[in-house]
Amino acid sequence: MAGPAAPGARWKRHIVRQLRQRDRAQKALFLDLVPAYNRLLEKAELLDKFSEKLQPEPNDVTPATHQGPWEKDSGPDSDQVPSLATLRVKWQKKEERLQLVCGEMAYQVVEKTAALGALELKLQERQSRLAALEVRVAQLREARAQQAGQVAELQARNAEQRLAYEALRANTRLQEATLRGLQEQAGDLLERLVQRKARAAAERNLRNERRERAKQAQVSQELKKAARRTVSISESPSTLGSGIREEAETPALAAEPESLEREACEKWKRPFRSASATSLTLSRCVDVVKGLLDFKKRRGHSIGGASEQRYQSIPVCVVARLPTRAQDVLAAHLSEVSAVCFGPSSSLVATGGADRLIHLWNIVGGRLKANQTLEGAGGSITSVDFDPSGAQLLAATYNRAAQLWKVGEAQSKETLSGHKDKVTAAKFKLTRHQAVTGSRDRTVKEWDLGRAYCSRTINVLSYCNDVVCGDHIIISGHNDQKIRFWDSRGPHCTQVIPVQGRVTSLSLSHDQLHLLSCSRDDTLKVIDLRVSNIRQVFRADGFKCGSDWTKAVFSPDRSYALAGSWDGALYIWNVDTGKLESSLRGPHCAAVNAVAWCYSGSSVVSVDQGRKVVLWH
């Protein structure tokens, strides 16, 4: 109980002390004034008494007007003694002055009294405020004590959590070291697996070559034996049959296959006048040549051979139609949508995003209708591409791999693993069973899809953001503001074209004569591949490249260039004139990541960072 009482006694003593100081200060102001006022009052009373004594009675006073002439010569001291009237006037003037002074003093006293009352009111207000503040201070001190206790508890808890954090950090270091060891082991195992696949492919090719060589040697021996053999042919079938039977019994003919005999017999049974054994050898030669051609065709899919099988050409529209309005808007994915691609039929669209899903959509009656969902991606989708036949779909993911789907099957068919960082682009080549991927690990890889094997790795000095493929060329856009050209038949870079800004996307025209690049300097550039020079640069007020993976495309007839901006607008430039043809706004409220123009030229699909997929007509 002593604790709470002590602060109350202190503030009471403080108030009494302040009141005393105020009394002393205010009393000091009036110490001189009150005595002076009292003296004036005393003097006024004295003057009143003197004036009463000096005032003559009515019988004794003689008016000055009745003064006789003898009073003029009353004596020599008449000039020195003032008359009573003069003294009365003088005292009356002094009395008036004293009354004025007293009035002024009284007025000042009233003013000072009023000021004192105001000061007392102010003092009371301040005292009340002081009391409230004292109460507030006491409450704050109590709260401070409580907060200090809480701070002490939090400090103790923080110390415990710090110790736990240090333990977790040490455990994390150990687990990271273990993870690095496991990753190194996984990398070694992957390299060994790839090497084993390469050796198995080489051994398989070698066995096929040996088998074909043995078959060719056997056929050549049969041809030599057949060439050395003489056949006598007579007019009668019996003689012919006997001759054939005699030859069949010889040791040289006994080694021939039964199929060859049947084929020869069927040929000899046809009506003719004369023939020789060269007819048999000619048909056999044709079969041998066909076998050799089939063997070369089969070798085209091996590691060392180059495939000659190409996809059929995709029909392209003559004149593309400019989109003017949004036909359908869907919130298609659970998070950001980063990739979109049309199939060769122009009625199938694929979209992929950060939710690790690929959705296939059919365009029916100007609307997007869900067709299928492809699952199994190990990370966010960064790129999707249909093969020219429309039967397969290739996607690049953040899981350091590209994955292959067969359209119509929900699960992934193949996983192309081998990159050491995020795969940013994956595209089919024009030859069957081949693809190209680009990654942030500064490599571009060529893949044999038939064996899910990396046939070639190209090391680059910068991150690869996008790739496109021509007949015998691979073009890659990089983070160091350069576009590089690679001959798929040679190991080295054939050409480098610098651009201003990090390259975010590449688009190759259908005739493979022009290349469209989009970069972070908010420009699109058209490169004429015939002269390897930048032909046009497209800019527009308000157009800004929204990310490092913003995609721009040519129209199918190469008349227009299309790209999405950071503010959700689509910009279309005329390639021939270089002018901005139109800009489309409306459904997109976030940055547009990618756009796609269908091969028929009638529709455009755009996707953005806000999960929207928009169909334009």
TrEMBL record:
<dbReference type="GO" id="GO:0034045">
    <property type="term" value="C:phagophore assembly site membrane"/>
</dbReference>
<feature type="compositionally biased region" description="Polar residues">
    <location>
        <begin position="231"/>
        <end position="241"/>
    </location>
</feature>
<dbReference type="InterPro" id="IPR020472">
    <property type="entry name" value="WD40_PAC1"/>
</dbReference>
<protein>
    <recommendedName>
        <fullName>Protein Atg16l2</fullName>
    </recommendedName>
</protein>
<dbReference type="InterPro" id="IPR013923">
    <property type="entry name" value="Autophagy-rel_prot_16_dom"/>
</dbReference>
<keyword id="KW-0653">Protein transport</keyword>
<keyword id="KW-0813">Transport</keyword>
<dbReference type="GO" id="GO:0039689">
    <property type="term" value="P:negative stranded viral RNA replication"/>
</dbReference>
<dbReference type="GO" id="GO:0034274">
    <property type="term" value="C:Atg12-Atg5-Atg16 complex"/>
</dbReference>
<dbReference type="GO" id="GO:0000045">
    <property type="term" value="P:autophagosome assembly"/>
</dbReference>
<dbReference type="Pfam" id="PF08614">
    <property type="entry name" value="ATG16"/>
</dbReference>
<feature type="repeat" description="WD">
    <location>
        <begin position="374"/>
        <end position="415"/>
    </location>
</feature>
<dbReference type="GO" id="GO:0005829">
    <property type="term" value="C:cytosol"/>
</dbReference>
<feature type="region of interest" description="Disordered">
    <location>
        <begin position="52"/>
        <end position="82"/>
    </location>
</feature>
<feature type="repeat" description="WD">
    <location>
        <begin position="330"/>
        <end position="371"/>
    </location>
</feature>
<keyword id="KW-0963">Cytoplasm</keyword>
<comment type="function">
    <text>May play a role in regulating epithelial homeostasis in an ATG16L1-dependent manner.</text>
</comment>
<feature type="region of interest" description="Disordered">
    <location>
        <begin position="225"/>
        <end position="256"/>
    </location>
</feature>
<feature type="repeat" description="WD">
    <location>
        <begin position="416"/>
        <end position="457"/>
    </location>
</feature>
<keyword id="KW-0677">Repeat</keyword>
<dbReference type="GO" id="GO:0015031">
    <property type="term" value="P:protein transport"/>
</dbReference>
<dbReference type="InterPro" id="IPR015943">
    <property type="entry name" value="WD40/YVTN_repeat-like_dom_sf"/>
</dbReference>
<dbReference type="Pfam" id="PF00400">
    <property type="entry name" value="WD40"/>
</dbReference>
<feature type="coiled-coil region">
    <location>
        <begin position="116"/>
        <end position="219"/>
    </location>
</feature>
<keyword id="KW-0853">WD repeat</keyword>
<comment type="similarity">
    <text>Belongs to the WD repeat ATG16 family.</text>
</comment>
<feature type="domain" description="Autophagy-related protein 16">
    <location>
        <begin position="14"/>
        <end position="205"/>
    </location>
</feature>
<keyword id="KW-0175">Coiled coil</keyword>
<dbReference type="InterPro" id="IPR001680">
    <property type="entry name" value="WD40_rpt"/>
</dbReference>
<dbReference type="InterPro" id="IPR036322">
    <property type="entry name" value="WD40_repeat_dom_sf"/>
</dbReference>
<dbReference type="InterPro" id="IPR019775">
    <property type="entry name" value="WD40_repeat_CS"/>
</dbReference>
<dbReference type="InterPro" id="IPR045160">
    <property type="entry name" value="ATG16"/>
</dbReference>
<dbReference type="GO" id="GO:0005654">
    <property type="term" value="C:nucleoplasm"/>
</dbReference>
<feature type="repeat" description="WD">
    <location>
        <begin position="554"/>
        <end position="583"/>
    </location>
</feature>
